[in-house]
Design a protein that fits this description.
With 329 residues, the protein is of the alpha/beta class. It has eleven helices and twelve strands. Strands 2-1-3-4-5-11 form a six-stranded parallel β-sheet, with helices on both faces. The chain has a six-stranded mixed β-sheet with strand order 7-6-8-9-10-12, with helices on both faces.
């Protein structure tokens, strides 16, 4: 396995920025807008963005990074309002994780028209006007999940896909990749793929309970495409005595509860992103753009399969236990 390099692209990225002496005289204000501010994934994005700020300021630049987003990941109106407010403030740039691939198009285009450039991270937007897209290869992650679940159940049996929510491009791509992988196994039957967990553990738990009440006796495997439904489904499995591998489960993201569930054997695989690197790279990419330099249109920050067997490896531990407190002071 190649080294993950969670926080270690700093030197090469800073060197590539090529700041001039005049750049250090100007103050920059960047707004970083997540889908939500509740889940641990976004705290890791926040840490990465603040790490970039720290390194830029240590290089003599004057960079302020403002972190602000909706509380819940289904509050489209609030995220739109946050984007519009930063546009009105004429910040130098916006880094955005759109919680809806279509609903955020208009405010993003308005910001760009007002000369406020936008870097999109984590989840794509139905637009070609933004500067760069910094994210996981979510489709690849979904394929990895499907292949791993198929292996866990011996290539046959009944499986469930518990979706996240409509409009979330990142999870929709994971779900698509998962379905493509599962279709390659003719002895695997998809018995449910039309239920949505919603944005919180509470909504996800209720949907998980309903699914298990209906299909629990005939179920062999489950895939959940992000942190809230992964945690919710694992809890629901425990509550009916189906955890611990009786029903194989693959989740997505490395929240502390999901990592504990993996360690305890209630989850048999996690597809893990690199959110600290994602937040870091998105801010660095925006600064590079503001300096008039060419940036890549799409930047892949990596995706990894984590199991009980490899979770102790140093490069994987760095993903599972990032030093958030170092940057979120």
């Amino acid at each position: 396995m190649k080294p993950v390099r969670l926080l270690l692209l700093s030197t090469s990225l800073l060197a590539s920025l090529g700041f001039s002496a005049s750049a250090a005289e100007k103050a920059y204000t960047l707004a970083v807008i997540p889908k939500g501010t509740t889940h641990e994934f976004w705290k890791s994005i926040n840490a990465g963005a603040f790490k970039a700020r720290q390194e830029l300021n240590e290089k003599g630049l004057k960079v302020e990074v403002i972190w602000k987003g909706p509380l819940k990941e289904d509050d489209r109106d609030q995220q739109i309002q946050v984007v519009e407010n930063f546009m009105s403030r004429r910040v130098n740039g916006i880094v955005l994780a759109p919680l809806d691939s279509q609903a955020l198009v208009r405010p993003v285009h308005s910001a760009i028209s007002a000369k406020v450039p936008v870097v999109v991270m984590d989840s794509d937007l139905n637009s070609d006007k933004y500067v760069s897209f910094v994210a996981t290869d979510n489709h690849k992650g979904g394929v990895m999940a499907g292949e791993h679940l198929a292996k866990l159940i011996g290539g046959k049996g009944n499986v469930i896909l518990l979706r996240y929510q409509v409009g979330s491009a990142s999870t929709e791509n994971r779900e698509k990749g998962f379905l493509e992988a599962i279709r390659k196994f003719p002895d695997i039957k998809l018995i449910s793929s039309d239920q949505f967990a919603g944005p919180t553990r509470e909504t996800g738990y209720q949907v998980s309970q309903n699914l298990l009440n209906r299909y629990g006796r005939e179920l062999d495997g489950i895939f959940c495409p992000c942190e809230p439904p992964t945690i919710a489904m694992a809890m629901a499995l425990r509550n009916i005595g189906k955890a611990g591998g009786k029903v194989k489960m693959v989740g997505f993201d490395a929240g502390s509860q999901s990592v504990q569930d993996l360690k305890n054997g209630d989850v048999q695989g996690l597809i893990v992103q690199n959110p600290v690197l994602m937040g870091y790279t998105a801010v660095m990419t925006m600064m590079k753009h503001l300096q008039g330099q060419k940036v890549e249109r799409r930047i892949d920050t990596g995706v990894y399969l984590v199991t009980r067997e490899n979770m102790g490896q140093p490069e994987i531990k760095e993903l599972l236990y990032p030093p958030l407190e170092k940057y979120l002071k």
